[in-house]
Amino acid sequence: xxxxxxxxxxxxxxxxxxxxxxxxxxxxxxxxxxxxxxxxxxxxxxxxxxxxxxxxxxxxxxxxxxxxxxxxxxxxxxxxxxxxxxxxxxxxxxxxxxxxxxxxxxxxxxxxxxxxxxxxxxxxxxxxxxxxxxxxxxxxxxxxxxxxxxxxxxxxxxxxxxxxxxxxx
Length: 169
Ligand SMILES: [Cu+2]
Hints:
With 169 residues, the protein is α+β, with helices and mostly antiparallel strands. It has one domain: PCu(A)C copper chaperone (Immunoglobulin-like). Helices cover 16% and strands 46% of the residues. The protein has helices at 5-16, 147-156, 162-166; strands at 25-33, 42-50, 54-60, 64-75, 78-83, 88-90, 95-98, 104-110, 119-128, 133-143. Strands 1, 2, 3, 4, 5, 6, 7, 8, 9 and 10 form a ten-stranded mixed sheet that branches. Mean pLDDT is 81; it is low at 11-20 and 150-168. It binds copper (II) ion. The site of copper (II) ion (CU) has 4 residues, from strand 8.
């Protein structure tokens, strides 16, 4: 089985949502980037597949004062990000990927650091083609990189941490 712990957790929480429409949305590979003390913003990422045409129109989390759906793109050689004013389109049957450098959930005004290997609750607000809104609650794993790469980490013995070692006296 390739399912990671949080994937199962996400599936379980999705099943708890008492809403026919929300159950037509599949969310996988959800994760949020860990933060350090004093850091006020971070990103959350996931793959969303809607069974029928829908839109991701809102997001909220108790850990963040402000949560927005952002897109990141190059503008005259400068990477810029901005909130999507009309939400993010979720075409029927197509996996829409929220990932670093692209669409992402922006968590701002963080109330506490996001600690690696914990989870943060996230509530997504979706809107179907008729304009009916529903919410999906999920728990997102906190890490330094996507979950699949994290499991890879164990075999490579955390080689990303060598940067810290370089600065040791
Ligand atoms: Cu952003």
